[in-house]
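Example 3.
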Amino acid sequence: MNIEFLFPRTESKERHEHDVEMLEADLEEEDLKREVLTSLNSSDAFLMVTPGQRITSDPQFMKGHGTYHLPPDSMLSAVAGIVEPVNKLILVRPLHTRYTGDIGDLVIGRITEVTQKRWKVDLNSRQDGVLQLSSINLPGGVQRRKTEEDELQMRKFFIEGDLLVAEIHAFFQDGAANLHTRNSKYGKLRNGSFINVPPPLVQRCKTHFHTLPCGIDVILGLNGYIWPIDDSTREKIARVCNCINALSQNFVYINDTAIIYAYDASLKFHVRELRRLDVIDEIMSIVVAKVASSKTGFFQ
Amino acid sequence: MQTLISHSERDYILRGVESNLRADGRGRLDYRQVTFETGVISQCSGSARCRLGEGTDVLVGVKVEIGQIEFDGAEEVVGSKKAKWGRVVCNVECSPIASRQFAGRGAEDYNNELTQIMELIFNGPQAGIDLEKLCIVPGDKCWVVYVDALVLDYAGNILDTIFLTTRAALYNTRVPKTVVQEVEGMMEIEVLDDVQEAERIVGWEQIPIAVTLNKIGSRHVIDATPLEELATEAKLLVSVNKRGKICGIQKSGEGSIEPSLLNEMIQKILEALDVRLQQEEEVLANSSRGGAEVGQINIQKLGFFAAT
């Protein structure tokens, strides 16, 4: 079967402006990359590979993430993604990834299981996170040791399917995240809507709790789960949800500024129209232009 | 996709349905935008791909092959009829990349369920296809129409999309001409290679499409998202052809539907389907001329596996 990949095209004008702004070091790096890619027989600026595809058999390159060695001398891709050479090291950046957490990350999770003294939490990660009974604050802000009685009524705090916002406290030996909600900001989520976006699109920020000018509170989980909250108007929530979806479909970084830009641009359309592909295109062209003109806050 | 939903989400969806403003801003009976592409796979006799918004993505390939007529075991009256019939064989597969719940063996049961519904509606005279025209040598050989659907991406409402895509793929299908000669008592079939000579499946106009209504609370919505599907008590799929005749009904889900609501739901579906069929037809008719857009449906060259 003839499989053809279509790449998003950058317009030549934008490209030019971008080049001018680029530091010389960046340019050199870019040239080096281009050189390596050419030596890998790629005529484009990209080299897209699928699992098992040979990247090179030249022994001068080193194997990085997303690649593996096939004796005697082939380097194959282990994932579907884009080849990223760093000098002589070759990595493949996958197109679709699971979330890999870090200590201190703010995440939104869904309870999948209630077990002895702990909850299992889906984090859009390779394995479920763990929320221990000892790492939650009891309702009412009571500070005390958790008793056996608390253990028996764990479902009163969180039940299967519940969404919660938490922070990654530590990691276990097997790599599972240990969460905590020992802060009044964290805990169960109510009165809002759930959105799922690719985790790499959510950037680390000082805060992940934002209040938009339109009055909606948004929690951006670093694992790609997002929760807009409001008590009164569903329409505004729907609009924010659609804006975030539009951003993620166009692979624009999702932060408060981008959401506000998208929200403002969306105001001339009815909330029902925001799912139309041409409307999304129009909004996104405005947002991308605005983001490009005010780079602060986007590339920290 | 997760299989769990929290109480507050269910409540949020319920109230949204009640106030005719769903989580993504649609009303109860609003469909997402549909994008079509026909003739995607050159090895097939006909193929189509369809996306709902930027979510659900279905690829259907139709292949016609010469096969044995099946009429054994049927009663004599039915058997004599079936001896002159071609066959339609359906298969649905949910790709593991479409959703997390389809990974491993998770999709097995669901694939079976979808295939059963497809078979129920497409394999028989109710599908509109003139089965007698598919017969080559009565009692022996016929064209078998293999309909294979592949779900590439999942964002709710798979069945409607599969039906829509299947109709487009069957519209796109060309059946080669055959010449039958009797040589020494044996029937010899010659398939003509000429592409120009190949013909559309007879009766494609009457191939049905389907719309699913999801009962949430005391009301119902069209084109549900995955979260809405989790909050759904009962689903009703109604399949209708161009003449407005019902070709199949399937109820699924754990909840119940009251008789009065059932009538109302079917009426709603009939109205929705009438519009959809007209739109699809217009779009398909224009498809040979490149891009086309009618109402909520548009046809576009996406490029196979194209990035969004």
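Chain A has seven helices and 17 strands. The mean pLDDT of chain A is 83.
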